[in-house]
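Re-run with default settings, no changes from the original entry. Doing this only to confirm the output is reproducible before filing.
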Amino acid sequence: MTYLHYINKRIFFVLLVIFAFGTLKADPIKETIAISPGIIFQILASELSVISGNIPPAAATYAEIAEKTQDIQAAKRATELAITIGDHITALKTAEIWRNNSNNESSAVEAVDALQLVLERTDDLIRSMKVRRKDAEENNTLDIFYNKLSSLVKKARKPETGLLIFEQVSEDDQNLPEVLYTTALLQFNHGNISKMELLLRKLIDIKPDHANGLNALGYSLADRGENLSEAKRLIKAALIFSPNDPHIIDSMGWLYYRMGDLVKAEEYLAVAFANQPDPEISAHYGEVLWMLSSKEEALTIWKIGFKQNANNKTLLETLTRFKVSVDELVTENQNE
């Protein structure tokens, strides 16, 4: 009964897919392409192939259908399957069909952007973003545009690529607070600490209540153990403007740690971790607990952060400094 139920569910899913493709439409200007028995068979065979775990032929078939019919659902499915098997070139082609025939549906546009970034089609991405930047300016939505662009370029494999894209697209908006802030963070990722600090100081001059800018500059100084009195002033100001932000609370805790006040550091980091137990905060909190001789508690905190993101740079560097084995954390997480 269980096996038959499993098969029936899968067949029902395939039938739903076929129903979704009941009428394949090309470009609105062109004639509707009626679904043929051949395409029905291709869709059925492809979905059964996916169910059996054999995705590559299904991805190829859907890409062929999408190119032939210019159908939105076929192109979307082709994109999903191509991404699943790591065929980003085919995924980009089908994502462009999806975007072009869906009147720039947001998820299709985002897929094209992400794939252009992965494939390092930098010039194409910059051209596209410049067009959208102009539209955003006309619609008074530059803040929204730059928030989305910031999220995208931070995912670039090479920090210099993300920085290049962002700087070229934002060349006419260099004094906008969010542009200054994102550029500063990208400079940091590229290893340009001095440029990052210059940009953050410029940002704070323009917008003294920019909590994230104040915090970023204060944390940067505290983390390197430089100008700790200025770092404290900056982070305290950030807390005034955004008192409940876990990352700013974390910065204050980390500052006290750098100043040698472990008790104060633990107080702030405990609050930050309780509100947002992400890998970076767990790295800081665990380090302070370790230095307070609460090593078992420190390991527990690090395990929580490691479970969220095993590749977090700050957490891995912390574990290395304290000679804590990653294998130990993995083993403990598997036993939970």
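The radius of gyration is 25 Å. The first helix runs from residue 2 to 20.
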